[in-house]
């Protein structure tokens, strides 16, 4: 994920110092921006709560609690000798203190990457741009659990998007760009969502699919299938090539033009934009100017993944629509916590 560590502490069985001591130290450490905790049990819950309350208004604290169930409690007892205690009690303590809960180790790392690279949103209204409708539906399904709202796009925004997208696009949020391959349109839609006052968080799905992705997957996605076809159906190769050429020629002919009846064509003038680096530059600019988190959902994961490449450049990338929504939900929850503190005049 490309997450860097300023400090790493293993507390062992906490004979002399325990998690509250380390939390307090990291809270005052100028080299630490986000704190992540793995907790099996607490020796002094009251002190932990007091320390956490002082830190969370200034720094995000993300915690993974182990020993949530009966089997986990037994494992914790045999591992560190800690009494895990009722999980719901601990969850209530985290909510009071503004600690962000991670449910898995994978989510713990995701949230660490997100909170170290994304601004905190002003609210919980989400705008989604998706290259295909299925991703948008999958993301929308996860909204209720995470306490998010689907942003209502104003008529003026919809009219503006009509200029770039085919007439059969969804005309609502999520914005399904129906496989539009004109990169400039991807960027226009993304910018329109980020600058919309009714949107607090932007999720972009499918746009992180630039030249880097194609070069990495050229053999697997293009050359290898062609070689298999050559071996199995050699007589069909000329027809395949003719069909490919006709499609490519038509795509070039329509490139750069608004195509209300179709999804547009390939515009050679957009070659520089078809890189993940171009998207990263746009996302970073939008987050800086608008103060809103923009979460991209990667298409390619694994070694040398988009998540690693983009986070090294200051942009968070989620592996799935659901993980993007979970991150958005945690950001919105932290925003509510900070807003409540501000309204009570208790920020420090």
Please tell me about this protein's structure.
With 348 residues, the protein is an alpha/beta fold. Mean pLDDT is 80; it is low at 76-81. Helix 2 links the parallel strand 1 (35-39) and strand 2. It contains 14 helices and nine strands. The chain has two domains: 19-116, Succinyl-CoA synthetase domains (Rossmann fold, 3-Layer(aba) Sandwich), CATH 3.40.50.261; 118-348, Succinyl-CoA synthetase domains (Rossmann fold, 3-Layer(aba) Sandwich).
Layout of SSEs?
Elements: H1 19-28, E1 35-39, H2 45-55, E2 61-65, H3 70-80, H4 87-97, E3 100-102, H5 105-115, E4 125-130, H6 133-141, H7 143-146, E5 149-150, H8 155-162, E6 175-176, H9 183-194, E7 201-205, H10 211-232, H11 237-254, H12 276-290, E8 294-297, H13 306-311, E9 317-318, H14 321-344
Parallel strand pairs: 1-2, 2-3, 4-5, 4-6, 4-7, 7-8, 8-9
How many discrete domains?
2
- Detail the poorly predicted runs: 76-81
Relative helix content: 40-55%
Taken in chain order, the helices and strands follow as HEHEHHEHEHHEHEHEHHHEHEH
Give the total of beta strands.
9
Question: What is the multimeric organization of the chains shown?
Answer: single chain
Count of runs of 4 or more consecutive helical residues: 14
Distance between the termini: 31 Å
Going by helix content, strand content and strand pairing, the class is alpha/beta
Largest sheet: number of strands, sense, barrel closure? 6 strands, parallel
Can you say what the CATH homologous superfamily of the largest domain is? Answer: Succinyl-CoA synthetase domains
By CATH, the topology of the largest domain is: Rossmann fold
Strand content: 5-15%
